[in-house]
Amino acid sequence: AAFKGITKSSTLEITVLNGVLQTVNVISEKVDPVVIGDKIQLDFEAILSTGVKVEKSEVNVSYESGDESVITIDENGVMTALAEGRTNATVYVEKDGLRKSNTIAVAVFDKYEGKLGDGFKEINFGTSHGYADFLDDGKIKIRCTGDNFWNTSDDGYYLYKEVKNPKSIEMTIESLYKMSTNTSVGITMRSSADPKSKNVAVRCTPDANIIMVWRNENGGEYDYKGAQNKQFPVRLKLERDGNVINAYADRGNGYELLRSFDIDLGNDITVGVPVFAQSSNGLSTETIISDLVIK
Fold it and tell me: Which residue in 146, 111, 137 sits closest to 289, CA to CA?
């Protein structure tokens, strides 16, 4: 700038910050339960502190199996399922000297087609993929994905019977593989096999904690209440008398009443077993149940 013949200038230095590597997420294209022999492409996304996704050509990436007797992962991220078991898969991403990683749980199952018991039906709500297998020893094995039986529309696997004026449903949960802290299996009475139907359910998480959930209106939000438990097996029961439904749990000392619900489900309803994995990577859980009785 010039003033009375005097010229002055100044220089402003501007530093552009591109951000540093902050978050790495593993992505799996697999939506069905992983079984021995499957080859699954693992992928990843890397995000900078600015929120911008990094181009894959700008980073160095490597993969690691938690147990190579169960799964192997090659340099291109192709995961091969070798044997039944539970382990982890980890991706490491490095950019500008900074290294980040993300680990996911992986469950590999033996192969089977799945078969249903007499009178049972199955449905996958939302994004869920799953199936049940009624075993020769009387137990039932269920494998599925699914996000949650929650909000206004459910997303998970449902094994059920259509029953006119049912009196009760009860079963024992033997085990449940943990894909997240909210992975769940339980029993329910629903007004229909619609994902938005009103219902009452009592279910368990992988830590054997008991949760009761209920939706009073079709398309409505859920309410919930928890109850402490210590370990599997645990036996659950729903008993219906008109519009009153009582939820029970046997934690080793006989049935205890957990809560009573007043909800009109109608006469022709569905009664069964809801399951969901709620895994961030789309992989499935497995549960073993026994002594399923519907009256």
Answer: 137
